[in-house]
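When time allows, look over one protein, given below as sequence and C-alpha cells. The question is which stretches look regular and which look disordered:
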Amino acid sequence: MIYADWHEILASRLAWRRAGQRLVFTNGCFDLLHPGHIATLEQARSLGDLLLVAINTDASVQGGKGPERPIISQAERAEVLAALECVDHVTYFDEPTPLALIAALLPDVLVKGADWGPGEVVGEAEVLAAGGRVERAPITPGYSTTAMIARAREENC
C-alpha cells in the first residue's frame, strides 16, 4: 500500500502503463467510512487493475466542508482506506479539487458517484481526451457522512 504525495506516484504510473495495467482513480474526503463508500470503492476496483484513491487533506476538507470537519485526520483516513482489499494505493491532494493530479496521472478510468452529472466530474474532460473513460457508481441509499454526523449530534443533544 502506498501513502504518498501524488507527485511520487507519477513514476509508478509510467511503469503501470508500460505493464498494461489499467489505473482506476477515485477521490473524496472519506471522513467517516460507510457502506456506501465501500460499495463505490469495490465497484471502482472492478473496473481496472489498480485502484488509486486520492483523499482531501485536512485543510482541503475544512475549506470545503467547514472548520468542524474532518472528523478523522487525513493520516487515519488514509490508513483505513489502505487496509481495504480493493484499494491498491492512497494519496492526498491539498487543493479544492484533484484536477492537477488527474491531469498528471491521466487514469484509464475515473470513478465518481452517480450524483455527479455529465460534465460535473472534475477531470472528466482530461481523462476522456486521453482516451480514458468516466464511470458513475450507483449511490447506496441511506448513507451520507454529513447525515451521519447530523444524526450523531441530534442524539447527543
Summary: The helical segments are 6-18, 35-45, 58-65, 74-82, 99-105, 124-129, 145-156. The beta strands are 2-5, 23-28, 50-56, 89-93, 109-113, 133-137.
